[in-house]
Amino acid sequence: MPTTRKAVTISELTNLLKTSQVAVVTDYRGLSVAAISQLRRTLRGKAELHVTKNTLLTRAAQAANVPQLEQLLTGPTAIAFIQDDIAGSIKALNDFVRTSRVLTLRGALFGPSLVPADKVGDLANVPSRQQLYAQIVSALQGPLNNLVGTLNQSYSQVVFALQAYSDKQGESATAAATDAPVSDTPVASAPSAEATAATATDAPSAEVPSAEAAAATATDAPTADAPSADTVVPAPEV
């Protein structure tokens, strides 16, 4: 069983193998401590350089499901874990190899694939994660813009169609109100003041009998004969 310190180191190496885009394995045999520190400073901000035992790195490779890395673990090993800036990190390593003439490259782990030492330099042509994102966005931007334009055009067409339909309905209602038939039934008009006065003047008035006529009428009327005193009224039969 590994000690607590070794277990922490294995866990750290495992996480780096899982999260790194490239892991470059180097042989630092003959390199001084000062030179290794200088290489770390050169890679700072681009990659992490770890000098570790092959046994611990082997366990980490197995835990990260990349056991093929074991093929590069022979002799003193320093491994550079590259997260994003692949081109910058590879260039810095190649420059250090050329100037130091001590550090050598064994190969690299690129995803699940092993890259031989003479091909590690080609990884400098691999775009970084930000560059890949930019390329993907650029590739998608054109179709997305076309889609937005098509949607806006379709929306405008729908709005125009609805407006045209509304205008047509309004015109139809106005035309129906204009063409409605007018009734021929004459409208009774109120009589004017002059016509009312003329009608009242021409109407025959009832003649009021004079006092003499009334008296003559009363004189000439037949009177009922009142019974005289000598007239015997027969008694009723019993």
Q: How would you sum up this structure, described in words?
A:
The protein has seven helices and five strands. By secondary structure, it is α+β, with helices and mostly antiparallel strands. The protein has a five-stranded antiparallel sheet. Strand 4 (104-110) and strand 5 form a beta hairpin. Helix 1 (4-19) crosses helix 3 and helix 2 runs antiparallel to helix 4 (86-100).
Using only C-alpha atoms, the radius of gyration works out to: 63 Å
Beta-strand residue fraction: 5-15%
Biggest sheet statistics: 5 strands, antiparallel
SS-based class: alpha+beta
| Percent helix | 40-55%
Q: Helix tally?
A: 7
**Mean pLDDT figure:** 76
List keywords for this structure.
five-stranded antiparallel β-sheet, alpha+beta, single chain, 238 residues
Quick synopsis:
The protein has 238 residues and is an alpha+beta fold. It has helices at 4-19, 33-43, 54-63, 86-100, 129-178, 193-202, 211-220, and strands at 22-27, 47-52, 77-82, 104-110, 113-116.
Write the layout of secondary structure elements.
Blueprint: H1 4-19, E1 22-27, H2 33-43, E2 47-52, H3 54-63, E3 77-82, H4 86-100, E4 104-110, E5 113-116, H5 129-178, H6 193-202, H7 211-220
Antiparallel strand pairs: 1-3, 1-4, 2-3, 4-5
